[in-house]
Input
Amino acid sequence: MPDLPLRCVVLRHEGVAAPHHDLLFETSPGSALASWRVPRWPVAPGDFAVRAADHRPAYLSYEGPISGGRGLVRRVFEDAACRVSLREDLVEVCFGDGTELRMRLDGPDRWVVC
Output
């Protein structure tokens, strides 16, 4: 995993047809945020995640309405000391408190929490 700590955030996305959580994290300092839609936070082994388009770094601190009537987000978790390993088929995130998240590719844009 990289030596530099990275920032991550989990946002609760409401006001949409299927409310969910967005897991967003840097892959290098200041990068766009790699993004997954998850059903709940914290996730549990066996939960599925869907890869989403990368988000702007502004979402690390943003809470409120999303443009175009796409609901609103509120922060439910944040960490400024993550370590991230991102491969084509495996994502590993080690949070500052030592807890880890692993997701394996399970199909096109679909990941399973290990």
Observations:
- The two ends are 18 Å apart (CA to CA).
- The mean pLDDT is 94.
